[in-house]
Amino acid sequence: MGATLLPGSATNPRWGLPPWTVDFHSEQEALPEELDFAVVGGGFTGLAAAAWLRHSEPRKRVALFERSRIGAGSSGRTGGMALPETAAGSLPGLGDVLVGYSNILRDLQVHCDLTLPGAWEIGRQGVLPDSPIAWNDCGTLGVTREVPGGTIDPGKMLSGLGRAASKRGALIFENAPVENLRLGEFPILTVRGKSVRARSVLLATNAESLELSGLARRAHPKLTMAVATEPLSFEQLSLLGLAQRKPFYTIDLPYLWGRVFHENRVIFGCGLVHVEDWRELLALNVAEGQAAELLANLERRVRDLHPALRDVRLSHRWGGPILIAENWQPVFRRHAEHHNVVVLGAYSGHGVALSVYLGAWAADAMLGKRDLPQWDNAANAAN
Ligand SMILES: Cc1cc2nc3c(=O)[nH]c(=O)nc-3n(C[C@H](O)[C@H](O)[C@H](O)COP(=O)(O)OP(=O)(O)OC[C@H]3O[C@@H](n4cnc5c(N)ncnc54)[C@H](O)[C@@H]3O)c2cc1C
User: Which of the residues 151, 157, 302, 371 has an alpha carbon 20 to 30 A from that of 29?
Assistant: First the structure.
């Protein structure tokens, strides 16, 4: 089993840039030969798991391998809405995601501007009489319901989780793609051409390296798009109905989500580019082809939403990968070929809070402190 990566894909300027930065980067260290725990993927899931492993068991040898830079995948290009449950709703034994997520961030001392003022479901029907939002988008869009939720600064969450893991002694290797995973008595990873033996492995590669995670042909990688406006005045925010800074997403189609970011920039997102093979994602360019068309369409919709946005300048345009698995349920299971390899991801665009919450759960499971949930039937087992 192995994942072949595209040459020259270490950083991906083709996906555009979001309005935050990741200011944590790892120090170069010699690759270990043996580990207790290897984590593959330096997004929210992998970083939270690595930090939680060392938080719980400071003596265990933990290393995280990231193909590119921390946050190179979905986590660095997310919208940053912290949402409850999963994209498929609540699942048996899931628990309270937002409470668990907040507690993990507190315990790891990760400061990422988390606020949980609630989130708005918006739609064209069933709009509340006192809806603060009245936007023009295939009908009149308004608030239909308030649910728990809020926002984070994704750059700060990535940096904070990276520091939390590193400070607790997890080794973090960037530009260190796991090229192969051999599943014998112990899992053996190939990194930079060298073998690294681990007692237990977490595969948190999300929409990429699907052969490694056993999710090729079982889950669907996509690129999804977002834009950020230039800073708006408080008057503009009030006119839009966003003075309370609650994030929002439609519950009918056409889909639209958004949130207010620092300096009163408003981020909006929608649209999916479908690919047959995850490697195609890495080659997509948001300035060309279908991704560019989706961005242009999103820009038109944003300007038409409300007169306050008619002449607004967009300062950032970007896209990022998501992975959608069966029934829109996250994948959280042991690898069919090895009990000590756990696969976690495919949050279907719903992974900001869930990735950290389940990343810590995966760490507890690898430490033998907790069982994995039973969300799959046998037919869904990896490989
Ligand atoms: C535009 C956009 C908006 C979104 N908005 C929201 C939102 O508002 N709320 C919400 O809840 N969710 C949202 N999401 C989804 C959310 O961001 C993701 O679910 C979450 O970030 C997934 O984190 P992850 O760590 O599992 O995956 P990723 O962040 O994708 O991390 C996987 C990592 O694995 C690395 N990797 C891959 N292959 C290898 C290999 N072979 N070896 C080593 N490393 C490898 C990749 O480089 C990558 O860094 C959004 C996503 C996008 C793209």
Answer: 157
Q: Is the confidence at residue 80, as pLDDT, over 60?
A: yes
- Counting beta carbons within 10 angstroms of the beta carbon of residue 380, is it exposed (0 to 12), middle (13 to 18) or buried (19 or more)? middle
Distance (Å, whole) CA 219 – CA 330:
10
**Cβ(150)–Cβ(114) under 8 Å?**
yes
Residue nearest to atom 16 of ligand 1 (CA): 351
Of the pLDDT bands very low, low, confident and very high (cuts 50, 70, 90), residue 11 is: low
HSE on the CB side for 217, CA within 13 Å?
3
SS (H, E, C) 127-164: CCCCCCCCEECCCEEEEEEEECCEECCHHHHHHHHHHH
0.90 exceeded by pTM? yes
Model confidence band, residue 5 (pLDDT cutoffs 50, 70, 90): very low
Pairing of strands 314-324, 257-261: unpaired
The DSSP 8-state label assigned to residue 348 in this structure reads: T
Query: What residue's CA is closest to ligand 1, atom 5?
Result: 79
